[in-house]
Design brief:
21 helices, mainly alpha, 442 residues, single chain, globular
Length: 442
Amino acid sequence: GQYFNDLSTAIAGRRIGGPAKVAIFSSALQGTISGSSVANVVTSGAFTIPMMKNLGYKKEFAGAVEAAASTGGQLMPPVMGAAAFLMVEFIGNGITYWDIAKAAAIPAILYFSGIWIMTHFEAKRLGLRGLTQEEMPSKKEVFGKLYLLIPILAIILLLMMNITVTHAALYSIAISVLVGFINKDVRMKFIDIIYALVDGARTALAVAAATAAAGIIVGIVTKTGLGLKLANGLIDLAGGYLIPTLMLTMVAALILGMGSPTTANYVITSTIAAPAIILLGVPDLSAHLFVFYFGIIADITPPVALAAFAAAGVAGGEPIKTGIESSKLAIAAFIIPYIFVLSPQMLMIDTTWMEVAWVVLTAMAGMIAIGAGVIGYWMRGMNWLERVLAVIVGLLLIYPETVSDIIGISAFIVLLALQYLWKNDNHDSSKILENNQSIEKS
């Protein structure tokens, strides 16, 4: 855990608003192995939130960055808060773990890119610096400990080789112990290994209890036919149209996901909310990832935003305000699921690399425009009209359709050019003003 923070600081600490970017990078790394948004917040947040506050970020914004990034950790392969393994069982139809990890990779990268973009614009707007050389860890020491990432790489490779989940986990634990012996700073004694196994068992019990309780709900919903009735009810309410059905399913998943651990969250949302989308012909994988995303985002969506409340506790901020800021920063998570339902190429389903590259390129440009519009800063401050136009352009780019992409890219280039030209004009004007003032003083 400490190494994730050190590695993130070494890579991103010196950049504009460095600590916020450290929080994003660190939480993405923590998320590769963590099964809880809240645990992720309190682990990396205890280190990153004070750093952000010291550099000038507001308490609520500092907490929001950590909460949004930590919640995104549950969407990050390889384990996705253990939901990836459940998806293999729930979807069936010959789908493999590797299919799910591969499909979830691009949406997760876009999610973290969206948070990164918005924190960058916020840091530029506030004029925040990165960390100084004195505040940075030694890069030589940090990169000299890259071997600590071996267990994570090992579990990914083992799962890619179609080894069972249980065996992959067992071998990775053994590799973790061996790697621990290499690191003389924290070399484990035999009793430490026993204590670590006890802690692991306690954590597993909490997950098992939550999943078992969710299983009771699933059993009732399935046996009584309530699940199918709810799905048909959602479709009837939406008039049988896909977009309204997706919007209603989103609301259902947000409500069902409130306060639930990741695994229980997925079990409930996939049983109750996903069938509504599947009935309209959406591929199973797209539907399951759609409801999973919104179930997870419930952790930062008020009124019950557990990850945001935990971050507010660490930052000393106001919980609901932190939740609202988190939702703004995680705006990508409210958009990306619609993209991969309407355009399965993003999940690398029946597509070519050219199509995938185009979808990612337009979606990334769209996230830059939306981020600038929400924050109100790009290359310079933006007025309300520019902000509205930027958000519209972003949505056009994100919507997967040729005409909207062409219009969106054209408008994006125009907006970028205007930002660049007006920025230079303002810069030249301020220089002339400074020169005049110095002449007057002389």
